[in-house]
Amino acid sequence: MVPERVPDDFAVAIARQASGAALDNDIWRMFGFRKYPKYGSIVQGFRRRWKVQLERLLGNEIIALTIAAQITARQMMPPDRTRLLEDAVSSLTMSAGVAEACGFRSSMDAASYFNKAVSEYIEVPSYEGWPRLFVARIAPETIPDHSIAVRILAGCVKFAVNAHLAMLLGQSEGRNV
Q: What is this structure's pTM?
């Protein structure tokens, strides 16, 4: 039996920062929310399903793009980048309750989603690609409420551009973004 590799401290820090970004009120304001949307399970049952799904998707994509920005800022070769990606995602999804809070049935489902999403962000050029990919993954055109769709679209572009700028800053200063 092969022992499971323990994520290094940097991977854990990336996961911590990404989950913190998904809970950050300032980030949610970019998308037109007053603060991070937080509801109890009873209230959640009375909310429109598409809104609950949209909020979960936004949170998951905020996490994915934050991880991608951190990894891209490190300018690593593909084997090291892949290991860091897997370790960061593992650290995130193995934390108690994270998979369920992100809307997944299991830690394996969450890890699969985040590995794929982060990999997609890493593979496209950050300046042009991240806003386009973020918008495509959120699909604001499918949101039934037009005013919310417009705010979400603007927030997608703003967040992705900010992630790109933070990544560039991290590269120039050689630190975490």
A: 0.89
